[in-house]
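Revision sheet: structure tokens.
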Amino acid sequence: MPAARLVLWDIDLTLVQAGPFGRQLYADAFLRATGRPLAFVAQMAGRLDQDIYRDTLAGHDLDPADHPFPRFADALAAAYAGGTDELRRRGRALPGAAAALAALAAVPGTVQTVLTGNVPAVARVKLAAFGLDRHLDLEAGAYGPDDHVRAGLVPLAQRRAGARHGAVFDRGNTVLIGDTPHDVAAGHEGGARVIAVATGRASAEELRAAGAGVVLPDLSDTPGLLALVVGE
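Predicted:
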């Protein structure tokens, strides 16, 4: 059956939580890339990795021209690759994440991938650490370095998924699932229905205020989520 539905998953605090260990890995990569110990991290929730890094550099009075993002991205990928076992011990898949991915994978014509501010290598490690990558077509996803605006990742993922699965994906058959107002805005502006989950730092009220028509407390109600995505 040809693909008829695209589900775009945010990763951090939607599917997984790295916890304090994620900051430790970020600090290791920052030191490796800049030679400076990390004293400050810019706001992360819902933002692209390159924007977080730029603002973190500014907080250390460092010039981005002297500390290019690709160098940091490589260092962060290496830190996550080397810390996979510890990530598995200290982080977690969020409640219902595995069951939701498996349930949607069983629906004919459904393609699942990611829409994330992470660099691809880090996204893969985070998902694989908790066995959440098996139902995702990560080649069809869109990642932080792919665009300077999060909303721009939506049509990119639609094109990639469409080319890989012989389908046309648009607002009518694309669903974005995320936990931040940035995810909500990306879906509305980029061309996707939005299901918000209040598993991150934004409250349900903040997500509704950002324009989310549907807000779930978490992913634990698998039948309910399935009905929302499939529209039945």
